[in-house]
Amino acid sequence: MNHKFALFAVCAILCGSLSACADSSDSNHVVTGSSPSSSSTSGQQPTADSAGQSGTDGSPQAAVIPKGGGKISAEKALYEIYSRTDIGDEEKVAQMMQQIAGINWTTYNQISGHKTLETVEYLYKQLDKIEAGDYPNIVRAGNGTDGASAESYAAILAELYTREPVKFIEAVAGLETPSQIESVVSHLAYGLSYQDTAQIKAKLEQLKQTGSLSEGERKVADQLLDRLDHPY
Questions:
Q1: Using CA of residue 160, residue 130, residue 176, residue 144, what is the dihedral sign?
Q2: Which of 27, 40, 78, 185 is 20 to 30 A from residue 8's alpha carbon, by CA?
């Protein structure tokens, strides 16, 4: 009887082990079965991609102020700013001043559909919005002007010089080459020729005597004095 009881006990233990293994197998199956939930999460990826595409599509519209260089020419960037209708004149002029240095107006004329004169005249009408801090950029913006556009550009320079002579001379003296300085002085003298040149020269001489000009700035003043005698 004792042997039979022992055999019965062993069988019971074995059956219990088999049952536990079966439960463990079922449990593993349930975990594996949770994979569709994972698939469902990854199924949301197109939405994320769509959002990404929306951001990419929106970026050109967000970057309404071109910086020039790289994939877009400075002339095209300036024309895009000038063509904007969603901003006021003050902001437009400020953006144009940031872009205008080194502009070639002949190239701009081709890109804009012959709107160089229109653009330069627009800036002349908005002179009150051009600040002293813009002078270093505006004196670098005379390349390719011709005829009426050259006269309008010269008028801009003359008005800015009259407003703040020292700041303007400082900007001209900061140009990189003598030929650039000569070009700006030539435009400036032409623009100033419509004013009382004797009075302008007297004030310029007085400015030189105050000692507030650097050596480079004094050279610009001397060039301007000389050019005012034959501005054409």
A1: negative
A2: 27
Q: What is the DSSP letter of 134?
A: G
Closest to 92 measured CA to CA, from 62, 65, 131, 128:
65
Contact 97, 141 (CB under 8 A): no
- Distance between CA atoms of residues 9 and 50, nearest Å: 65
**DSSP labels for 141-162?**
--BT--THHHHHHHHHHHHHHH
Q: Which residues of 113-134 are buried (b: 16+ CB within 10 A; e: fewer)?
A: eebbbebbbbbeeeeebbeeeb
**Weakly modelled stretches of the chain, pLDDT under 70:** 1-72
Q: What are phi and psi of 213, to 5 degrees?
A: -95, 145
Question: pTM (2 decimals)?
Answer: 0.69
**Residue 172: which of 181, 163, 164 has the closest Cα?**
181
The residue assigned the tokens 């302008």 is 200
Q: Over the stretch 202-225, which tens digit does the pLDDT of each residue have?
A: 999 999 998 789 999 999 999 999
The 8-class DSSP code of residue 229 comes to T
Q: How far apart are CA 212 and CA 217, in angstroms?
A: 9
